[in-house]
Specification:
The complex is a heterodimer of chains A (196) and B (92).
Chain A: H1 8-23, H2 31-40, H3 45-57, H4 59-67, H5 69-72, E1 89-93, E2 98-103, H6 112-115, H7 120-123, H8 125-130, H9 135-141, E3 151-156, E4 162-166, H10 178-182, H11 187-191
Helix pairs in contact in A: 3-4
Chain B: E1 9-12, E2 31-41, H1 44-48, E3 56-64, H2 65-69, E4 75-81, E5 85-87
Antiparallel strand pairs in B: 1-2, 1-5, 2-3, 3-4
Classes of the chains: A alpha/beta (196), B mainly beta (92).
Chain lengths: 196, 92
């Protein structure tokens, strides 16, 4: 299990393996850092926010997004193909009755291209182990009190898909243009641990 | 033998294999409902052992919290390789 990302034992082991691969010519010097930089370049919650704003103003886009997110995000110039392979994206939308929240209980899978690097608490054992069992309590601890009657759906990214939440459009935002709407969307909103 | 399709009820594997697997412990031996197929991917268990393997179906499987934990009114949708799943014959 990759539960403890800060373990110095694991870090030392990774460095050792990296050095061995470089010595045997299987890996160029500094190649891993370069690959990671390339993968992270452009990865930002601004991307997820743009997708959400388009979904709020364009019901047709919203429908395509929920049906086939990889194809739909191309309409706003985004892609999940920035890594070694294109990752499958699954987008789920909150409604007045149902709230979605995302976790990876096995490690910390996360759509970096659309949300940027994940917050520290997302990778914590506390969040990963508790949110599947008591999502309402975890959200409350994060300062987000859901109405009693709201159904909660937790999504565990335990295989190859990455997940993103379309939050409910805030009341009173009817007159805002798409770019201003995007400015309302937060990273926590895209994970499902806060309202927008 | 029931084919895997949306709406089919499945039970997850109960074995606890050595090494890497992607069936979370809390979802072992549990009954859930298939929601949708989530593409084809080589089995992570094989890849972790250095074996490539052919891509095989992955499913979104929805469990009720009550079935998983004995309490709670939410659902948990877990993404699982078909290898971890066995359909439940409804009339068996």
């Amino acid at each position: 299990m990759s539960g403890d990302h800060t373990s110095s034992v694991i870090s030392a082991r990774v460095r050792h393996v990296e050095a061995l691969l470089e010595r045997r010519g299987l890996l160029g010097s500094g190649e891993i850092d370069r690959r990671i930089d390339e993968f992270l370049a452009g990865g930002s919650p601004v991307n997820g926010a743009r997708i959400v704003a388009r979904a709020w103003v364009d019901p047709g886009f919203a429908g395509r997004l929920l049906a086939d997110a990889n194809a739909a995000i191309g309409e706003v110039g985004l892609s999940m193909a920035g890594g070694l392979q294109e990752q499958r994206l699954k987008v789920v939308a909150n409604t007045a009755d149902e709230h979605n929240v995302v976790v990876c209980t096995l490690c910390s899978c996360y759509p970096i291209a659309l949300l940027g690097p994940s917050p520290g608490w997302y990778k914590s054992e506390a969040y990963r182990s508790r949110v599947v069992r008591d999502p309402r309590g975890v959200l409350r601890d994060l300062g987000f009190e859901l109405p009693e009657g709201t159904r909660i759906s937790v999504w565990d990214a335990s295989a190859e898909s990455r997940y993103m939440v379309v939050p409910c459009r805030p009341a009173g935002s009817e007159h805002l243009p798409e770019d201003r709407l995007a400015g309302l969307v937060t990273r926590k909103g895209l994970i499902g641990t806060a309202a927008v | 033998m029931t084919d895997l399709a949306p709406g089919v009820r499945v039970r997850t594997r109960t074995t606890d294999p050595d090494g890497h697997t992607r069936l979370p412990r809390y979802a072992r031996g549990a009954v859930g409902v298939l929601v949708e197929e989530a593409g084809l991917h080589p089995l992570a268990d094989d890849r972790a052992r250095g074996r490539g393997g052919t891509p095989r179906p992955v499913w979104h499987v929805r469990f009720t919290a009550a079935d998983l934990f004995g309490s709670g009114d939410h659902t948990v949708t877990v993404e699982l390789w078909a290898d971890y799943l066995a359909p439940i014959e409804e009339d068996a």
